[in-house]
Amino acid sequence: MIKIVAGKSKFLREIAEEYFKLLNPQNKNGAFHKRNSIYGRIETQFKIKSNRSNYSHYGRHLYNNLKTLITGIPSEIYQIQKQLDGISNLYSLKRNILLKRINKIFYYDTFRESDTAIWLAKEINLGVCVYCNRQYISIIKHKKSHMYLADFDHYFLRSKYPCLSLSFYNLILSCHGCNSKLKFTAKFILKNYLHPYMDSFNDILRFSTNVLNTNFFFNKGDDFEIKLKKNWFKNPTKKDINRAFKTAEIFRIKDLYNLHKDVIIELIQKHIIYSPQYIDNLYSEFSILFSTKADVYRMLLGAYVIDSEINKRPLSKFIKDISEEFGFLKLH
Length: 332
Ligand SMILES: [Zn+2]
Description:
Blueprint: H1 12-23, H2 38-46, H3 54-64, H4 66-71, H5 74-90, H6 95-106, H7 108-111, H8 115-124, E1 138-142, E2 145-149, E3 151-154, E4 171-174, H9 176-183, H10 201-204, E5 205-209, H11 214-217, E6 226-230, H12 238-250, H13 253-257, H14 261-273, H15 276-285, H16 293-301, H17 316-326
Antiparallel strand pairs: 1-2, 3-4, 5-6
Helix pairs in contact: 1-8, 2-3, 2-6, 3-5, 14-17
The structure holds zinc ion.
């Protein structure tokens, strides 16, 4: 899982604010649009101004906390959903009635294909799935509209936390496999699992092999194992290491990356062929092609090797970690 730190050209906070405005268009007189805004739909569904029923308590709390519910960080939005659940229990509200109203307010099923969703996906501008770093996240023109070859995963499950279905920090652009096949109905909470907007898997765990000597292993087939181990460079806490391993288990990271042993064999070949001297020579001789030494490695490895760039191309973290372990990639 690779941490998302900013969008295409804006800070995450700014994208969240703009997203909130798009979800809540206003009329010329400044009032929220009755049908097209979430505020308007809460009023319609819960009649919060005229109605004093038990359900209106729920609606008022939703209305008053909507801004945080949409733009707040994961711990804040989780808290609001818990408060709403508390109101529901206190007044013995019927879940099926609530769900019906909530679905009409948030309209997630139509949201996914909406211009706002496309705008959001483009602003976040992820190259690769944050969960696996194996699949591209792509948005392409399709007839008059757009099509995105990706999913929006709900970090907090939509079935359990229905009011978080449009929350900015709950919508995680990911590949279909990670969302629908692997995470699926796993109940993620912050205490147990990493959150891609809050935590960096890259800082906590590293890929590792038991290939200690690349010369020795050359041409010996793929009789080695790919594992995950603590990232010693960053000294993560025990708690985060546990959360990272649990998260990796859900997304079957170890199993999936053991399918990419051919990549490691190529790294062994490259390590033997390209000496440090050769790499230095490439850098100095073709300075017009490479602005940094990392660019040289990127060409040789076919992967991004700077931490902040590893979500631009599949397998970048894997290739970077193992190349560093072999002593092939040396940027410092
Ligand atoms: Zn994925």
